[in-house]
Design goal:
This protein is of the alpha/beta class. It folds into three domains: 205 residues, FAD/NAD(P)-binding domain, CATH 3.50.50; 112 residues, no CATH class; 127 residues, no CATH class. The chain has 18 helices and 22 strands. A seven-stranded mixed sheet has the order 9-8-17-18-19-16-20. Helix 2 packs parallel to helix 3, helix 2 runs parallel beside helix 18 and helix 3 runs parallel beside helix 18. The longest helix has 20 residues. The structure holds flavin-adenine dinucleotide (FAD). The site of flavin-adenine dinucleotide has 35 residues, from helix 2 and helix 18.
Amino acid sequence: MKRQTVRAESPQVDAKGNKAVGRKAPENKVLENKALENKALENKAFKKMPSRKRAVVVGAGPGGLAAAMMLAKDGLDVTLFEKDSRVGGRTKILDDGGFRFDMGPTFFLYPQILESIFVRCGLTMSDYVSLARVDPSYRLAFEDGPDVRIGSDLVQLEREISKIDADDARQIRRFIDLNRRKLADFTPVLQRSFTSLVDYLAPSVLKALRHIVPLSTVDQELGRYFKDPRVRLAFSFQTKYLGMSPFRCPNLFTFLAFLEYEFGVWHPVGGCGAVSDGMARAARDLGVEIRLGEPVEAIEFDGRRATGIRSASSAIAADAVVVNADFAHAVTHLIPSHLRKRWSDQRVADMKYSCSTFMLYLGVDGSYDADHHNIFLSRNYTQNIAEIEAAAVVPAEPSIYVANPGRTDPAFAQNGTSSLYVLVPVGHCGTIDWATQKQPFRDLVLERLERLGFSDLRQRIRYEKMLTPDDWRDQSSIYLGATFNLAHGLDQMLYFRPHNRLQDVEGVYLVGGGTHPGSGLPVIYEGARISADLLLADLGIAPARLPAADPQAAVSSSLVLGP
Ligand SMILES: Cc1cc2nc3c(=O)[nH]c(=O)nc-3n(C[C@H](O)[C@H](O)[C@H](O)COP(=O)(O)OP(=O)(O)OC[C@H]3O[C@@H](n4cnc5c(N)ncnc54)[C@H](O)[C@@H]3O)c2cc1C
């Protein structure tokens, strides 16, 4: 892939601080003398000025972009390497065949966290990102009925849930009150690092941990409020954001449904990928050099200390390296195995991973009357969830999520056409042979969607792109194609998740879904803040003061979109 360099080149030095190899020698003596003169002046100036510290960021996903912004704001020279030709990672825009799609995230939750990062960087988020609230948030369609619309109006929500079960609908307020407390208690835990088991004894952590009932799952916790399994599903399918089943996900995570209710579901105008584009613009404005199409091939070390990175065309010395590339893929490919005691290849292989997704990005003639977000829940959803977990067979009657963003955002409905995003949760790479299974599975999904209301879908397709778990693994360097990264069981959270300051080595920091606090955009941004603060502290730099994300504060755009 052709490398594009955005922003003027800064001097390249190798891991030992020497000028980069390959720089042309002066062609004659005069130039040589001039160069020596300049060098002497440069050295003199250097002696007077404290040298700026340099950080390299590997990957321009949401975590990498957020970290780059904060580190540049705090005075570091930041170079960000991205292997792809576009920023955003899983949160990027796919522009193809005249159609626009979000590649990954479509639910933008709790924008207050991202806004607080812009504020910390002295920027106004709405100069870079426009947000619109989708209200009602989404349509949940049970295969055998009913159809319910979930939103933030409590009375309306009770009315919708009573279509399933009137008694359960009366429990919603109790559920919301308890989860409001749960999230408030847990927020400090999401905002701090976990570097030692002693961190569990901090008062704020102990307060939060009382909400965790060991071995209790989201579904079991919901059983304390709701007796109809479909109501429990309505408040638990959000565990998909973590790539986990509600029958396994720790009970703590009932607050995901609350988060949607309390703070709304947002649509960034132009798609979630447009947020990544906006963050890249902000990063450049803060002085970050972004190098697209330039994969990092190795992190260089002196003993255990990272000294920089190497790509096919450059070697850059750095005081710190921030890794945003998929955790399991990156550690096993970028860090020599003799330095990895804790994260040996075997240990990484033994970790538990989230599910994956089968994707169809469809450009269709005309538009459908469907809501912006539509979740079709399989009649046999327990079997479906079991199939996803086992990763041994393709689901027979899958649940399907369809985003129809053209309903509210003209960027996704151009010239009499519209973009449909189809996500089917499936197991991560295992024994399924996707090479032979993908075509029949695609046909099954489309046929199912036609029955669910997308009439004549197959005849109306003008553009189509399909992604299987194998494609996520091979095209996006995602370990096992586990799109939501490491699973979020208690055994892989907090201290037990790969640390923000990576264990085993020095000077390497993790950002993204594979480190604490976890996967999902708001927590990834929060994790980038934790890692940036650790890095700055290690370099003896006081970070810019971060105004705490004020849950009650309105975000800087407030446009409301209908379904
Ligand atoms: C289909 C799907 C749907 C999702 N839906 C939602 C949702 O609705 N809401 C939500 O909050 N979250 C959602 N997520 C989860 C999560 O928010 C996103 O996956 C998010 O993009 C993860 O961000 P990250 O910071 O971990 O980095 P990634 O997005 O994984 O980006 C990592 C970057 O590193 C780059 N890279 C890798 N190796 C190298 C290398 N050697 N050198 C240079 N660069 C490298 C990659 O190209 C990539 O750009 C979804 C994810 C997927 C896949």
